[in-house]
Write a structure and sequence with these properties.
Length: 620
C-alpha cells in the first residue's frame, strides 16, 4: 500500500497566522509533499504541519474582510454603489458557513502520525511537548466543529478515523449520519476536557498558540451557545428544527448547558493569568489597547495573529481616516449610528443622540464631541467620532455648515469634500457626504478598533500586523453573567457584568435593573467588530426580529449622523454644532433582512450525493 501523503504548507503559511509571530515552538522550514515516514521523524516538519492547521481555521468575520461589514449592523462600507442587488437585499443564508471534512481528515492524519512509534521515539520531542502538540491539533479540530455547528447545526462526528480510499473499497460504512446539534456541542466540550490537562497554562506569544485557557473558553462558549439555542430556539422559533434534532436542541437541555457554561467561565476568571485591561485616567484608550495592541496585553487569550512582512492586513490602509492616510486609500468603513447609540451614557440618560427638540428645532451642542464624550468610554476605543484623535491628530468629520438666511431661519449648507465657506471649513475632506464617492465617509463615524496606530501601517507593501482576537477574558465575565442570569442567580450575574461595565465608566446594574436585553447590549458594545454580533443574535433567535427588513425600522434600517457647524456671526449659537440623522448610504433602500429560514445554512445536494445519510436543514 502506498504511503499516505501529507501536504505541508510553506513557511509563509506558517507565518500567516502569526501563530507564528515568533512562536519558537512552531518555527519550521519550507517543505512540500513529504511521506509520513519523513514528516514524523523530524520535529521541525511536525511543527510546520501543526502550524499549517492554524492557518486553516480562520472562520467567520475578521479584520481582513472589512468589505462584508455592511451585512451586519455595526458598520457600512463607504465605496461603490448602494446596496440594491438581490444578493445584498438580505443577509445570505450561508453567511460564513463552514464545511471542510478534508481539514478534519488532515488533522486526523496528523494525530495518527504524532502518536506513531516514530514520533514517540524522537529525542527532540519529549513526551509532554508531543502531548501538547497533539492537544493543539485536537483543539483546532474542535474549533472547526464549533464553527460548523454554529452555521449549520449538528453534522457527522468522525472522531479520529482516517478514511483512505482505494479502488474497490466499499464506502457505505463511511457514510456517517448527522449528529444532533446537542451532540456536536457535547463533542466539542468533551474534546476540550480531554486536552485541557495537556495544554500549557502559560500565556503564549501574542496569544497565537492555544493554551489551557483557550480550551476552557471554547468549552464555555460552546456550552452557552447550546444553552441559548435550547432555550430561545424553542421559545421563539419552535418550528425551526429537524425531526431528529440535527438542527435545534431540546429545551430541557438548557439548564445543564447554562450550568456548565457558568462553571467553566468562572474557572477562567478565577485561575487564568488574564485580567480586564482598564485605566481610570484614560479608559477609552485602555479599551482600544485591550483589543488592538499586542504589547503588554493582559486580556487576549487566543488570536489570529499576523507577522510582518509576510503576513499582514490592509485593514488600516483602507479604513484609516483619508485626511491622515498613509497611502492612497482611506475612509472605506464607516461605523453606524445604530452601534454608537447602543453605548450607554455615563449618567444613565437616554443613549439616543438628540438632534431635535419637540418643536422640531435643532439641539445645539457647544462641541462636536459633546454627545460622544458623555458615553461609555469604550466608544472611544471602538469608533472615531468627529474631532476624535487618531495618532494624536484630530479627525475632522463635518458634513457642512448651518447658516442663517435673510429671514432668520437656519439652513444647511454643504459642499464638496475639502470645501471652505466664510473662511471656515464647509465640508471636511473626510465628509460625511451621502453619495457614492470613494474615500468619503457616509455615516459620520469611522472604525477605530483594529486600526493600527503605528506610523506607516497603511503603507504598501508592509501594511499592518494587526491581530484579530478570538477569545478575551471579558467574554468569560459576560458568559458567567449570562449563564447566572438564566439560572436565576441574579446577584452573581450583576457581579460579573459590572466588572466589564466598569471599564466604560457607566452606571452599574443592580438585581432590579439587569435584564436579558441589557446582557444582549453588553455583548454588542464590548465585542463590536469581533465576530460576535451575528452569531449571538442567531443563538438568541433575535436576528429575524431585529433585522426584519422593514424600511425605517429602528433596528433593521442602518442610520448615519451628520455634524454641521453653526457659522452665523452675531448669532448666540455661532460656533456650536447640530446633527441630523438619516438613513445610511450603503443601505439607504435596503434595511437588514434575516429571514427565519437563515438560522441554519443549507445542506448541499452534492454533500447528500456523497453521503445520503445527511438530512436537510429546516425550510430548505
Amino acid at each position: 500500500m502506498k504511503n499516505r501523503i501529507i501536504t505541508i504548507f510553506s513557511i509563509l503559511a506558517l507565518l500567516s497566522t502569526a501563530l507564528c509571530s515568533c512562536v519558537k515552538e512552531l518555527d519550521g522550514e519550507v517543505v512540500n509533499n513529504l511521506p509520513e515516514s519523513v514528516v514524523y521523524n523530524d520535529k521541525t516538519l511536525i511543527q510546520s504541519t501543526l502550524a499549517a492547521f492554524y492557518t486553516s481555521v480562520n472562520y467567520g468575520q475578521q479584520n481582513g474582510d472589512y468589505g462584508s461589514y455592511h451585512i451586519l449592523d455595526e458598520a457600512n462600507v463607504q465605496y461603490g454603489a448602494a446596496t440594491t442587488t438581490d444578493d445584498e437585499k438580505q443577509i445570505p443564508r450561508n453567511f460564513y458557513r463552514v464545511y471542510d471534512y478534508g481539514l478534519v481528515r488532515r488533522i486526523n492524519q496528523f494525530l495518527k502520525g504524532i502518536n506513531s512509534s516514530t514520533a514517540k521515539s524522537l529525542p527532540s520531542l519529549p513526551e509532554p511537548e508531543r502531548l501538547n502538540m497533539e492537544a493543539q491539533a485536537k483543539f483546532l479540530r474542535a474549533w472547526y466543529y464549533f464553527s460548523m455547528a454554529r452555521s449549520i447545526g449538528g453534522m457527522p462526528i468522525i472522531g479520529d478515523t482516517v478514511y483512505t480510499y482505494q479502488a474497490g473499497v466499499d464506502v457505505t460504512g463511511w457514510r456517517v449520519p448527522r449528529s444532533s446539534e446537542a451532540q456536536i456541542y457535547r463533542y466539542i466540550i468533551d474534546q476540550c476536557d480531554q486536552i485541557i490537562p495537556r495544554l500549557t497554562t502559560s500565556k503564549t506569544t501574542n496569544s497565537a498558540v492555544v493554551n489551557k485557557w483557550a480550551a476552557l473558553m471554547l468549552k464555555s462558549r460552546a456550552a452557552i451557545y447550546a444553552a441559548s439555542i435550547a432555550k430561545y430556539g424553542n421559545l421563539k422559533t419552535p418550528t425551526v428544527r429537524t425531526t431528529g434534532w440535527e438542527a435545534g436542541i431540546p429545551a430541557d437541555s438548557a439548564t445543564a448547558f447554562y450550568t456548565l457554561a457558568l462553571a467553566t467561565a468562572q474557572k477562567v476568571i478565577a485561575e487564568s493569568p488574564y485580567i480586564i485591561q482598564k485605566d481610570a485616567a484614560n479608559p477609552g484608550l485602555a479599551f482600544y489597547k485591550a483589543t488592538s495592541v499586542k504589547a503588554g496585553n493582559t486580556e487576549v487569550i487566543w488570536a489570529l495573529d499576523r507577522l510582518a512582512p509576510n503576513v499582514v492586513t490592509t485593514f488600516t490602509n483602507y479604513a484609516m481616516p483619508y485626511s491622515l492616510r498613509d497611502y492612497t486609500e482611506g475612509n472605506a468603513l464607516g461605523a453606524l449610528l445604530n452601534l454608537v447609540e447602543s453605548f450607554e451614557n455615563k449618567d444613565g440618560s437616554n443613549s439616543a443622540i438628540k438632534t431635535n427638540n419637540t418643536d422640531g428645532s435643532y439641539v445645539f451642542y457647544n462641541s462636536v464631541e459633546d454627545p460622544f464624550t458623555a458615553k461609555d468610554a469604550r466608544l472611544w476605543g471602538t469608533v472615531i467620532w468627529p474631532n476624535a484623535t487618531y495618532r494624536n491628530l484630530a479627525v475632522s468629520l463635518q458634513a457642512g455648515q448651518i447658516n442663517k438666511n435673510t429671514s432668520g431661519n437656519y439652513v444647511i449648507n454643504a459642499g464638496a469634500t475639502g470645501s471652505m465657506n466664510a473662511g471656515d471649513v464647509l465640508t471636511s475632506i473626510n465628509g460625511p457626504i451621502a453619495n457614492s464617492n470613494n474615500y468619503v465617509n457616509k455615516t459620520g463615524f469611522l472604525v477605530r478598533k483594529f486600526l493600527d496606530e503605528t506610523v506607516g501601517a497603511g503603507l504598501n507593501p508592509t501594511f499592518s500586523a494587526m491581530w484579530m482576537p478570538r477569545f478575551r477574558i471579558a467574554e468569560a465575565y459576560l458568559i458567567a453573567a449570562e449563564a447566572a442570569f438564566e439560572l436565576g442567580q441574579t446577584a452573581l450575574a450583576v457581579q460579573y457584568i459590572n466588572i466589564v461595565r466598569d471599564r466604560g465608566g457607566i452606571q452599574p446594574l443592580t438585581t432590579s435593573t439587569i435584564t436579558f436585553d441589557k446582557i444582549v447590549n453588553e455583548y454588542r458594545v464590548e465585542f463590536a467588530f469581533e465576530d460576535h454580533r451575528f452569531w449571538d443574535l442567531k443563538r438568541w433567535r433575535l436576528a429575524h426580529t431585529l433585522w426584519n427588513g422593514v424600511p425605517g425600522d429602528a433596528t433593521a434600517q442602518m442610520f448615519s449622523l451628520f455634524p454641521y457647524k453653526v457659522v452665523s456671526q452675531g448669532d448666540p449659537n455661532n460656533g456650536k454644532w447640530v446633527f441630523t440623522k438619516q438613513v445610511s448610504y450603503k443601505r439607504a433602500t435596503t434595511p437588514l433582512y434575516f429571514p427565519i429560514t437563515n438560522y441554519y445554512g443549507t445542506i448541499e445536494s452534492s454533500w447528500i450525493t456523497n453521503n445520503p445519510r445527511l438530512v436537510i436543514n429546516p425550510n430548505q
